[in-house]
Amino acid sequence: MRFDDGLLESLHEGMFETPLWDGFLKRLRVAAGATCAMLVIRPEGQSDVAELLAGEGPTAALKGHMLAAQMREGRGYALDDLLESANRHDRDQVRQAMQAARITAVRAVRITEPSGVDGWLACAGGRALGSASGALLLGLAPHLRIALRSFAALERERFRSAVTGEAFNRLKIAWLTLDTQGRIVESTQNMEQMFQWGTLLRRGRYDRLVPASPSVDRQLAAYLKQVASGRTMRPLAIRLSQDPWLDMLVAPLQGDTLSGHRSAAVIVYVSGDRRSQADRCEQLVDLFGLLPSEARLAWLLAQATSIAEAAETLGITVETARNYSKKIYAKTGARGHAELVRVIMTSVLALS
Fold first, then answer.
1. Which intervals hold domain HTH luxR-type (predicted)?
2. How far does Cα 88 stand from its chain's mean position?
3. For the domain bounded by 171-272, which CATH number is listed?
4. Do 171-272 and 7-162 have the same topology in CATH?
5. How far apart are CA 155 and CA 158, in angstroms?
6. Per-residue pLDDT tens for 200-227?
7. Peptide bond into 19 cis (omega under 30)
8. What ranges do the domains of the chain cover?
């Protein structure tokens, strides 16, 4: 069947529009000679539906009877077909609403895509809405099925991306991709926030990733050069700062990927904490009632540092550190070093 110029194009682009499929429904309304065109979408396993509309009409009644009519997938329906199972009172009410809106005809089709998303496409209008309009909807049905399948896949990926992004945020991890020239191709929103924490990493001219340390900059450039030459490289871990803590892991991207006009070569994971050690110790004092000396030891132990290493860092004896640790365990409720790490790192400090 030959479609109006741009109708199929607008159908497949509609999932990227706001509102969804707005351009397609407007084109369909004109092509069908309809007063209104409507697309109703029900995601798999849900009772709620999304109603998309172009034009005006008694859409609530039309939507309700489309959903209640037990429409077979891929078959065309007229108004009488949709009202067949309704009681006389409901039929009379719908017809009165139709007459008030000067609507005498309805054409509808139901589409179900493989993953279970349902769609109902309908046009309502006057005498111009005849069998040709019904044939138009039936011709569009297989194309709408493909569009709904793409839409369902896109929504699943959006959901997974949102969940993954939230997990990365909670772990204080961000990522970005670089091309072989060190230019940023893509980055997460929280990576942009990390750029604002300080000067350890920044977005430079031409979107180049610029570490504050010249040695780190040279190390990164050398790594990118070797990746560009085709060498198999293991991930490169770099400590950017101890206090506040900021680490970076650079790894070659697995498989080809393109974003815009530049190809990404590596992915960079950045993990860090914008709060200094002094900030965290003050928060531990407030949260658990620790003494400042105990808080300093608790924070070092929470970084999985041993008692001996923490004592050396603080300039105290191991015996003093052990005495402090007993008081720390009592105040935090931890039953040992491993549990102390969990208690501190899963406390509200992880959110600040």
1. 287-344
2. 47
3. 3.30.450.20
4. yes
5. 5
6. 899 999 999 999 999 999 999 999 999 9
7. yes
8. 7-162, 171-272, 277-351
